[in-house]
Design brief:
The chain is of the alpha+beta class. The chain contains 3 helices and 8 strands; from the N terminus they run αββααββββββ. About 30% of the residues are buried.
């Protein structure tokens, strides 16, 4: 269901701090939409603080996992001082691409270093 929700957003315009498919999404908004969890606001476009992001992911109910599977959230380093979130799918990733200016599904290998992988915990 997570991959299907992310895939349904493919083509949505990119918008920094975007949280709505009608207005646009960024990588955090796409993750929140697909995982059905709250998304933080007010973050900077550039941050290198992966530990702070990991803490926020734990607070949102995600658990770090060793091997990513389809539907897991990937925390990547997309550039110097820049972190990026993507949803793992069987063929590659689905992410909000600032260069393409939209949410895209990218087949093949992940183009950035993956810092950690996160899985939504099952509801009790």
């Amino acid at each position: 269901m997570i991959v299907a929700a992310a895939r349904a957003a493919v083509g949505t315009p990119f918008r920094l701090h975007g949280r709505d498919v009608r207005q646009g999404l960024d990588c955090v908004g796409l993750a929140a939409l697909a995982l059905r969890c709250a998304a933080p606001d007010g973050y900077r476009l550039r941050t290198g603080d992966a530990a702070a992001v990991a803490s926020q992911l734990r607070a949102a109910g995600l658990a770090e996992v060793a091997d990513a599977a389809p539907g897991d959230l990937l925390l990547c380093r997309s550039g110097p001082g820049q972190l990026h979130l993507a949803i793992r799918c069987a063929q590659g990733i689905i992410h909000a691409d600032a260069v393409a200016r939209r949410v895209v599904e990218r087949p093949g290998p992940i183009p950035w270093p993956v810092l950690s992988s996160w899985r939504k915990q099952e509801d009790d």
